[in-house]
Every structure is written in structure tokens, then in C-alpha cells.
User: What shape does this take?
Amino acid sequence: MTREPDAPLDPPRQYGGFRREAPITRVSLGPGAPTAWLVTRWDDARAVLANPSTSTDLSRPGYPTRTPMTMPPGFFLFQDNPVHDLFRKVLTREFMVKRIEALREPTTRIFAGLMDELIAHGPVADLVDAIALPLPSLVISELLGVPYEDHVFFQEHSKVLIDTTVTGAQKATAQGALGDYLETLVEQRRKEPRDDLITRLGEQVDAGTFSARDAADVGAFLLFAGHETTANMIGLGVLALFEHPDQLPRLYAGKAELATAVEELLRYLTIAQTGLARVATEDFAVGDTTIRAGDGLIIMLNSANRDEAMFAGTADELDLTRSNARQHVAFGYGIHQCLGQSLARMELQVVLPEVFRRLPGLRIADGQEVIYKPHAAAYGPSFLPVTW
Ligand code: HEM
Assistant: This one.
């Protein structure tokens, strides 16, 4: 299903019909892939994501993919319990609101530096390249404890990983280089500990919880999970605000108002556009539908977040004052619910008000067109030409 060309910030219109008439329906994923249940309503999405009889293991028969594979343990989103919990428990502390708050100041500093460069460069500039992409990867370097002098290396390689114009071989090279780099860093921190996430992963290696390679994979996975996602939300958030300039004052109305505005943007824009994939490990029921062990499920977060039953009367509108915006499922739900959500929220709370405060005349450059990523798992702009 494709988006309407005149509504690039809205999910494909067909989902409204599915929610009303066939909220859990069988769909084909094309040749070579099993069929799967498409879940489009908010309450059903939460019920499936919270159901312990579902798996995220890409190698399980019936998993809705054309390319079944086994993922390394450190990519714990794709692990079931007990492996998933082993990693998640180690990391939960690292992403608690208090720890993330400590990153607000460095994030503000990194952002201010990128804005200075953007302004010095002058218009026309690509906001994706100048701000949206570098900021999250620099913040993750800070969180992991990547030394400042390696930030450029880390940034360049992580950019290749999510670049749709490079070859598979280039991606594999970048992935290998980052993996090796992180493994070396884990080993260094085991010898010379510091106050950072890599050191704490190294302590788990010493304790025999997992291997140094697993620890490096966790670092790479955090980068993978938190880089392009946040970048997309920054780009789309700016575009949504271009379309609703009347709502901009909400970003400056106070801390709570800003937090609500960010939740609403997360709901309205729901970047996980291809849905979350699961496979049933046992029979279970969702409403009147029986799901059999081995059935694949695709949970459409973008549809669930536009469900009128939950966001009554105005689900398709952006309303930065929406009181129940935080009920969205843009970060998923259940045991795999986004680990980095407080980090993502904090980054958006720093960037969105500041970008318009520093450049009040910010707008799409005349005669230029925004390019979107219609097929990527995480939706967003790949090119956002701006002037001010
Ligand atoms: C606005 C930005 C973000 C969005 C919309 C987002 C969305 C999501 C979603 C929907 C899931 C659930 C996947 C599933 O259940 O299949 C998820 C999981 C995850 N996210 Fe995020 N994410 C964002 C930013 C981040 C950041 C900044 C980080 C960390 C640096 C991060 C780390 C993770 C991890 C580690 C998981 C897997 C959790 C688990 O399996 O226990 N995410 N994210």
C-alpha cells in the first residue's frame, strides 16, 4: 500500500477501511513469503504485542519475511526469552529517564554546534544531512563512550549503514569496521574502565554474562535502532510543523506542553511504516480471530495510531495539545517496546523548539522538493532542502 502523493505525512488511506471492515485480515507478502495476519486496530495491536505466545525470531517457520535468518544474540530485538531479557536487563538502567536527562546538556551542545555549521554554510542546506542524521549518531557515541576523536569515524560508518544509495558490499564493510571498532573498545574498557555504557557492557563480559563480540553487537544494535529512527522523526517533525505553523507556540509553552507535543508528533507520524513482525508460537485468539501456532502477524503501528476508537474524532489530525497522545504505540508495546524511547523523546524535545527558535524563517527552499523513503522500514525524508 502506498501513501497518497498529496499527503506524504499520512499513512496509506486503505488502513482506515481495514480498521472498519477487516481489522485482522490475511495478507500476501508476495512470492517466497508466507501469508500473514495484518493487525490494524489500536487495541488489537497492543493485545498481540503483549501476547507471550509470539516470537520475533526471524528464523522461525512462519515469520513474515522473505529472507529468514538467524540474528546474533546482541541484536536482542530478534531474540525470545530468556536471551532477550538477559540483554534487556543489563541495558534497562542505562536508558532510565534520570540517566538520559544527564545527556540533555551534551545533546544541546552537539545540536548547537551542528546548527552553527548549518548557519555558517548558509542556505540552501539539506536538513537531513546537516542535523537529522549526525545528531542521533553523535549522541549515541556519547552514550556508549566512543572517544571524541573517533566520532567522525563512527559517524561516517554509521551513515553508510543506513544509506540507500550504497552497495551491499559497502554496507558489509562499514558494518565489519564498526563491529571490530566496538569490540576493540570493549577490550580497552575492560582494562581501563570509565563511566560509560561500553565499560558496563565490558563488566558483563568479565562476569561471564556474554562475550565481548556480543557486547560489541549490542553497541552496534543500539546505533542501528536509534540512529535513522530518530533522524526520521526529526525530519518529519520539522515538516509537520511547516504544515502547522499555528501550533508552533506549543513547543515553547512549558516543559509539559513540549512533552505532549512530541508525543503527538510521534503518534501522528509513526515512522515504523512497514509494521512490526511476529510469529505465533501457540494458538491464541485476538477478538474473534483465532491465530494458529506458526502464523505470521504484521502489526501496523501507523494504522493503530490513527484509530478513531482511541483518538476519538480527530485521529487523522495533528493536535499538539492532545491529552491522550502518550497512549500511542509508535514505540511498540510489550517486552520489546522501544528501549531508547526516553532518549528519542529527549532528543526531539531539544531539537524541535531550538531549530525554529534559531531559524524562525525556516522553510522548504523554493523550487526544491523533499525526497521521502517510501519503501524503508522507518519512514522519513532522505533529502530536506531548507532555506531561512
Ligand atoms: C523516534 C525514534 C524511535 C522510534 C520511533 C523507535 C521505535 C521502536 C519500535 C517501534 C520498537 C519495537 C520493535 C518491535 O517490537 O518489533 C523499538 C525497539 C527498540 N528500540 Fe527504538 N525507536 C526509536 C529510537 C530509539 C533509540 C534512540 C534507541 C537507542 C539508542 C532505540 C533502541 C531500541 C531498542 C534497543 C529496541 C529493541 C528493544 C527490545 O527488543 O527489547 N530506539 N523502537
